[in-house]
């Protein structure tokens, strides 16, 4: 499997990629840039900058949304963290992987150092996402169920593969890079609701890039790091299905199965935000009117987001209780609704106490039944089959542009944000992919 994926990454040609896949790669890039810039001033990023002494260091790699620069590996770490800290990034729903973060953060420093076209940059994203998601599917659902954070554990392979492509690694070097990625694969679901969750994505970016760089200089590893008896797949999962890796490889590109979030939270609470917001808008009730919010949810919803009393914004992103509260209070679920202040708002605290989830295994993980009872005896119901942001109900290009504006204007201003949107949407035509980083810094 390691050799098959390495050959796929190195032999693919951009001219053979379907046009709709190319367009999707530009959407993925724009979404990633927006969330990375939006998260660039988060406390977690500030801590990393302080810890690594990067505040005034001048380097060759950009930190998105900021004036500081650093070396490529640390830039990959920081940009990976900032792109995931809001939990607003892309999602491959079949695996729950957020694939773009490790890959884009890993290859952006390469684009700033080497003359790489925008088409080459997008091609690397497409290939990296295929590697990540195919590997993720090959060990799902056991890998995720036992507790691995698959965005980090599988994401490092996509980062290593994409970086190997842009560094010009040969097949053996790419196999070594994948082996180095396998031995560094990490991330546990126990960390959800803390800064450490976004660290998984940043670490995957940094270590994926380092794997490709080391391999390019002759640093060896097993060339069967994925499929060997004591390799990644067998160590991290009791069940493997390698047909997910091989079927349609080079013909079907999994970036086409990528979805983009309208809400800054764990994806399993999106039906709650979508449904409660719709009911609020349709019937005009206020938070104080609500007697109870009754939910029918899949068991996975409570497993991932059963935190009744979150105390921080990061915890709120994994609280079905807070998701319902902010939807009824504000009618939306952007980053402001998942701030520390929003989580501790007395109205939100009170509403959370009125949320009553009931586990129903017949309800799919991406669906939800919602019943809101008011104090004056009214009852409002809605069943969300596919929430906004799902593949069946995607956000539009205009909605993605607005999302990017909300996230980036505080750092780049109005004109700078519009330049970013235009550059990302036309990235395939760029002569120099370094322009992507240029428009993403103030």
Please describe what this structure looks like.
It is a single chain. With 442 residues, this protein is of the alpha+beta class. The chain has 2 domains: 2-260 and 396-438, 2-methylcitrate dehydratase PrpD; 267-384, 2-methylcitrate dehydratase PrpD (60s Ribosomal Protein L30, Chain: A), CATH 3.30.1330. It is built from 21 helices and 8 strands. The chain has helices at 2-11, 19-38, 43-52, 72-84, 100-113, 118-138, 142-145, 150-153, 155-167, 171-184, 195-216, 232-236, 243-246, 270-283, 299-305, 313-316, 320-330, 340-343, 346-352, 397-425, 434-438; strands at residues 61-62, 69-70, 91-92, 258-259, 290-297, 355-359, 368-374, 379-384. It has a 4-stranded mixed β-sheet. A hairpin with a 4-residue loop joins strand 7 and strand 8 (379-384). Helix 2 packs across helix 20, helix 9 (155-167) runs antiparallel to helix 10 and helix 9 packs parallel to helix 11. The protein is globular. It starts with a helix and ends with a helix. The mean pLDDT is 96.
- What's the CATH class of the largest domain, please? Mainly Alpha
Q: Cα distance, first to last residue?
A: 43 Å
Residues in helix, %:
40-55%
Output the number of helix runs: 21
User: Looking at this structure, what is the CATH superfamily of the largest domain?
Assistant: 2-methylcitrate dehydratase PrpD
Radius of gyration using CA atoms only: 21 Å
Mean pLDDT: 96
Strand order of the largest sheet: 6-5-7-8
Q: Name the overall outline.
A: globular
Task: Give, in order, the helices and strands.
Answer: HHHEEHEHHHHHHHHHEHEHHHHHEEEHH
Biggest pleated sheet: 4 strands, mixed
The CATH architecture of the largest domain can be given as Orthogonal Bundle
pLDDT < 50 stretches? none
CATH topology of the largest domain: 2-methylcitrate dehydratase PrpD
Can you count the beta strands?
8
């Amino acid at each position: 499997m390691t050799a098959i994926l390495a050959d796929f990454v190195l032999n693919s040609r951009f001219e053979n990629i379907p046009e709709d896949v190319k367009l999707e790669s530009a959407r993925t890039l724009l979404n990633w840039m927006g969330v990375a810039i939006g998260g660039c001033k988060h406390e977690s990023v500030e801590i990393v900058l302080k810890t690594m002494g990067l505040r005034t260091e001048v380097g060759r790699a950009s930190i998105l949304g900021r004036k500081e620069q650093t070396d490529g590996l640390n830039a990959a770490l920081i940009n990976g963290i900032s792109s995931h800290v809001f939990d607003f990034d892309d999602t491959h729903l079949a695996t729950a992987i957020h694939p773009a973060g490790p890959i884009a953060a890993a290859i952006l420093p390469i684009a700033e150092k080497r003359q790489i076209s925008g088409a080459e940059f997008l091609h690397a994203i497409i290939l990296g996402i295929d590697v990540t998601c195919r590997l993720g599917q090959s060990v799902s659902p056991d890998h995720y169920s036992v507790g691995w954070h698959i965005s980090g554990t599988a994401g490092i392979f996509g980062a290593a593969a994409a970086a190997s492509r842009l560094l010009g690694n040969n097949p053996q070097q790419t196999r070594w890079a994948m082996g180095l990625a396998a031995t560094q694969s990490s991330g546990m679901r126990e960390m959800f609701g803390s800064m450490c969750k976004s660290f998984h994505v940043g670490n995957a970016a940094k270590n994926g890039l380092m794997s490709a760089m080391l391999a390019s200089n002759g640093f060896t590893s097993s060339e069967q790091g994925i499929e060997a008896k004591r390799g990644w797949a067998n160590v991290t999962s009791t069940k493997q299905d390698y047909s997910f890796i091989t079927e349609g490889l080079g013909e079907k590109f999994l970036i086409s199965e990528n979805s983009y979030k309208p809400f800054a939270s764990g994806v399993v609470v999106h039906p709650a935000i979508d449904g409660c917001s719709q009911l609020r808008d349709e019937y005009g009730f206020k938070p104080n009117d609500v007697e109870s919010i009754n939910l029918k949810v899949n068991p996975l919803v409570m497993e991932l987001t059963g935190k009744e009393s979150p105390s921080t914004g990061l915890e709120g992103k994994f609280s079905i209780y807070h998701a319902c509260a902010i939807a009824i209070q504000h009618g939306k679920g952007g980053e402001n609704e998942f701030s520390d202040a929003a989580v501790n708002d007395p109205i939100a605290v009170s509403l959370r106490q009125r949320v009553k989830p009931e586990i129903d295994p017949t309800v799919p993980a991406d669906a939800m039944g919602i019943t809101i009872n008011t104090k004056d005896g009214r009852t409002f119901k809605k069943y969300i089959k596919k929430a906004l942001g799902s593949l069946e109900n995607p956000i539009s290009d205009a909605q993605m542009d607005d999302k990017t504006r909300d996230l980036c204007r505080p750092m780049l201003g109005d004109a700078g944000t519009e330049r970013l949107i235009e550059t990302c949407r036309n990235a395939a035509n760029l002569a120099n992919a370094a322009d992507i980083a240029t428009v993403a810094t103030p």
